[in-house]
Amino acid sequence: MKKEHDETKVLDDPILYLIMRTDLDSLGPGKGMAQACHAYGAVKKVIRSNLVLQQDFLAWMSQTEQEFGTTIVLGGTIHEIDTILYKAKHIKNMASGWVHDPTYPVSDGDIIHVLPMDTCGFVFGERRDIKELTRELNLYGSY
């Protein structure tokens, strides 16, 4: 379902990177997958307000019939993610942000606490630029 090149696109190789927090013991595989789903919604919200990247996001979505493109999932601490997101905000043609879960569940014995939590970060943009930003991080689950 590839579309022809759109002259309004600014990215040659759009990609989405998710960076899951590795410093949250409670963020296991199940919660991690849920947070990755939340990230997709957060990315779409940011892209809606970024007129420059909208066509690139549509091109990324058109990589498959189910409307998603290549996504890389890395792991990092809150400080590593914060640093990457700060740098990404200052790079032209890049969208980034935190996924903030207002009801993140944390178990303490039989009690489940619900806390607001930044669970992962996301960066959408040119593959080579994001790869450079994240070169110190490993794939999520392989640290």
- Average predicted confidence as pLDDT: 92
Across the major sheet, the strand order is 3-4-1-2-5
Largest sheet: 5 strands, mixed
- Reported by name, the CATH topology is Bit1
CATH architecture: 3-Layer(aba) Sandwich
First CA to last CA: what distance?
35 Å
**In total, how many beta strands?**
5
What is the SS-derived class? alpha+beta
Helix content: 25-40%
Number of helices: 4
How is this structure best summarized?
This protein is of the alpha+beta class and 143 residues long. It has helices at residues 29-48, 54-61, 78-89, 127-133, and strands spanning 14-21, 71-76, 95-108, 111-126, 138-139. It has a 5-stranded mixed beta sheet.
Structural account:
This protein is an alpha+beta fold and 143 residues long. The protein has four helices and five strands. The longest helix is centred in the first third of the chain and has 20 residues, at 29-48. The protein is globular. The relative contact order is 0.26. Residues 1-6 have low confidence and may be disordered.
Labels describing this entry:
Bit1, 143 residues, alpha+beta, 5 strands, globular, 4 helices, five-stranded mixed β-sheet
